[in-house]
Design a protein that fits this description.
Elements: H1 12-35, H2 44-62, H3 65-87, H4 96-112, H5 114-121, E1 135-144, E2 150-158, E3 162-166, E4 178-184, E5 191-201, E6 210-216, H6 220-239
Antiparallel strand pairs: 1-2, 1-4, 2-3, 3-6, 4-5, 5-6
Helix pairs in contact: 1-2, 1-4, 2-3, 3-4
Amino acid sequence: MHTAQKALKKPLSLYLVAAGYLGLMFLQIYQMYQWGRFVSMPYLHDIVFLILYPVAAYGIFKVRKWGWYLVVGHLLFLLMGNLVLLVQYRYYDPVLLPMLIALAVFFLWFFLRKSVRSPFHNPALRWWERQHARFGATFKVTLRNARSEALNVDGVNLSAGGCFVKLDDDQNMTKHEPVEVELQYDDFDPFHVKGHVTWVTPRSELNPKGAGIAFVHANRQNRALLRAILRAVQARWVESGAHGAPVA
């Protein structure tokens, strides 16, 4: 059974995309060799451009916002540079030049897609960075802020470290806001714990408007109750054929 305490593995696709971007560097080096850039001292901008390949690949692998901007800018310069070679200098390799242009266009299309772009800009979507596995579930949550104002919301996933709750358009929360959490799942006793808002996401095509709540300062009794709830949630996942897979 999948343990809720085990750190999640980084997806294989990140390794493949980062390695594929490094592959572009070797094609670029071969093109520069054919163009005669290594016969004499290479230009400074050639050296900088090549150095940016592993830096950009590292940004891809770590899924960071700066990495996304670097990759997009790097690809635009790669695409423009090859078009200049084709149009201005009449350089044309029937295999290498079309391949580099096609790969640059493909990577640009890939990184501009919303499903790919979003994790670079929203850390909450990087599920592999979570300490605890998260499981889909439906439950009721009452959140009370420091002013004792109550907010009744629906929870959509749960982990040993927190939960995600949906917010209506007229409901708002702020990052780092402390809250008192009362969580009700099926016939279990209410789970009470202190928490704080770790992130807030607006409504989008991929996600509902909502907030991530981190649990803090749970006593031994409440931790035992939460473990029992999580076992029930996992059991329901297994019965539904999901086999305890974490929510992406």
